[in-house]
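REQUEST FORM: STRUCTURE PREDICTION
Request ID: SP-0412
Submitted by: Lab K.M.
Chain count: 1
Length (residues): 446
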Amino acid sequence: MLSLANATDELNHAIARLRYEFAARNPLSERSAREAQKALPGGSTRSVLFYEPFPLTISSGRGAEVTDVDGHTYFDFVGEFSAGLYGHSEPVIRQAVVEALDGGIVLAGPNVYEAKFAEAIKARFPSMELLRFCNSGTEANILALVTAQHFTRRRKILVFDGAYHGGVLVFPSGGNPLNLPFDFIISPYNDVVAAARRIRENKNDLAAVLVEPILGAGGNLPGTNDFFSTLRRETEAAGALLIFDEVKTSRCGSGGMQGLFGIKPDLTTLGKYLGGGLPTGAFGGRADIMDHFNPHRAGSLRHAGTFNNNVCSMAAGLAGLTKVFTPARADAFHKEGEQMRVDFQTIADAKAVPLSFTGLGSFFTLHLGGKLLEKAADVTPLSRQVGLLFHMFGMLNGIAIAGRGDFYQSLPMTSEHRDRAKSVLTSFISEYGDLIRALAEQNARA
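STATUS: Completed
RESULT:
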């Protein structure tokens, strides 16, 4: 049994050993990473994809698998951080994009796809009585916030510690220098008492509460029904808007998390998988709010965006939502994904290894410790390090997960993909079980 004093050192040594093996195994990816530094700072144009010693350079993907430039194929549980819902080669979406391209691109006018796509979204998310398209989930959240400020004639925005609403709306401990200069109030996630107090204290100045139904970058921590019911009740009492960021969580069943909880937000934002794997976002909600964008109305808001209705994203998104990710398939996929999360937890519990897998449905995160995690502060730096260890172990054993320990499943996944991931987890526990137990005890004492 490892001593507590040596556990952290052993963890660091284990990560270093796996990284050394990883580098030796992937010389072409290493060369590609070095070459990229000539034009990109650090060789990266997307911070979340970077990890030590260097990220793999992916040459191709098919179904639920990807292949790197060194010729290694991985079962893909990165899932483009939930944007890769359809996998890498869905034929229905491919055909839709080809047909859209054949009809011409950058048409500078309304096209045959966008209204049908909007109707399909509205049918899935009834709270989105009217909606508009944009180019990403980040953009959707920015537009929802300024819409709320305009509608309420107020400025303050309540958000939650650990939340991620796009690259310029990030709320880790210590802040983010790239955040847009909104007047933010920050509250702990899932803390009903604190949220109610902050809403009441700022009721005359609060434009909106922006919340993820599952705190994604904070560790895929699900919110509670009590938490969301409180936000709904208190925002209504204060005259503020409740905005659900369902950029990721709209894949949780046919109606997203708002459907599962039976909560009707004033505005909803969407993105990630929405465009079938192509760039798309959307924001929408109550008709009286969104009608401020109606150009028939005097003094209407002008919402620009050259590619808001680009034909490829509109066609791919429409085909995906109506022909592939149908309501029935969405509900079935949510159950399949949740079963995998439960199976992972069962494996760890059976071995008496203190790992927890938080999330819901088709995405979840590995954490150190067996206790219930509810807010970002519950996820310790040591827990993140264990996630890094599993990430590198998984890569060396043929499964790709996100560097921070996230798993995102995709529609083309089969029992073979999921069983392989379970096998890798079992091997990981066999290799590092004693270390994890010592780290968990150390983590509990910190």
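NOTES: The two ends are 20 Å apart (CA to CA).
Reviewed by: T.R.
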